[in-house]
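Q: Give me the 3D complex with nicotinamide-adenine-dinucleotide.
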Amino acid sequence: MRIIEIQGSSQPSTIRVGEAFANLPRHLPPGKAVVITDENVLRLYRDRMPALPVLSIGSGEAFKTLETVSDLYEALVDLEADRATFILGVGGGIVCDVAGFVAATYLRGLRFGFAATTLLAQVDASVGGKNGVNLEGYKNLVGTIRQPEFVICDPAFLETLPEAEVVNGMAEIVKHGLIADAGMFAFLEDHASAALRLEPAVVERLVAESVVIKAGVVGRDEVEAGERRKLNFGHTVGHALEKTGVFSHGEAVSIGMAFASRVSVRRGLLPEEAHRRILALLSRLKLPVRASVDPLRLVEALRRDKKRRANRIHFVLLEDIGRAVVQEIRMDELEGMAAEFPDILQTGPDP
Ligand SMILES: NC(=O)c1ccc[n+]([C@@H]2O[C@H](COP(=O)([O-])OP(=O)(O)OC[C@H]3O[C@@H](n4cnc5c(N)ncnc54)[C@H](O)[C@@H]3O)[C@@H](O)[C@H]2O)c1
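A: Here is the predicted complex, encoded as structure tokens.
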């Protein structure tokens, strides 16, 4: 097992990679606790849930809303949850985001922790303290930053994940290597097939190294004043692509990373050879590196991005594999590049 600590401003957070969910009682504080999970996780893992009240939400982004949060508040009232009640989120990124937000806001804040059940939640969503819900089609528009007391990443959960969800998580693992760890990227190049097969030693190493990278960035910049922006590598274009409804989060981020890598070459930051390695690894991990979208519509979606600042956008680029840099890019420059990279964004009708 690897134990990784984040020193958050609200409280420290301990992430246990390789810990068995069965050992949960060792980490839960004594007293009342309530589980928040989703319908799929409950169906698959009902027998392994701790003997606690369980609140289940629907599965999918459509349930990551203030309505779901409000339903959970009411259920907590019915359960007579008080300020000593501990909230345990058991699920993927959506459960972590919703359960974290409910815990951070109910009675002005309850103690909480997570058991992350998807690869994406283990390498990314459960770590770092950001939580929240979507509003009016905008992702994660409402939320707080508050660290979970603990996160358990039990690799056994991943055995029931559909392959598409494994691939989703791989996109964030590649991102972590690209922004901060060339050695991890090279390890993934050497073990791409084993990673997709979820070979335990390979996956545990990739999850632990991802958590170390994210925890390090969050520890240095919890509130995204600077360095934490690097975690958005591939996500600016990714979020715009995701809004088309055609791509999953991981697929959209993968195309976003391919695009950002291309922009990095164009700006004279990244060698062409490194760009080719990036595209090759993403493809081996069954992630797409191109999309057939109208670049102008994509730029329109970017303009509506909540992170947009006037006519400029903070864009994460690569100086090398393992080294990210944040630069401001003018929207018209981005628009020009979106139209210019037919190898990534093919001009054409929306898919
Ligand atoms: N807070 C953050 O820092 C952060 C970071 C990245 C992503 N996110 C958020 O995370 C969400 C995506 O997370 P996700 O990809 O885990 O999605 P998810 O929570 O929807 O899980 C994906 C699917 O897998 C199912 N599932 C969960 N665990 C399973 C298991 N062990 N076996 C089989 N099926 C299982 C779920 O029911 C769901 O249908 C997005 O809303 C995104 O915005 C948050």
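A quick observation: The chain has a mean pLDDT of 92.
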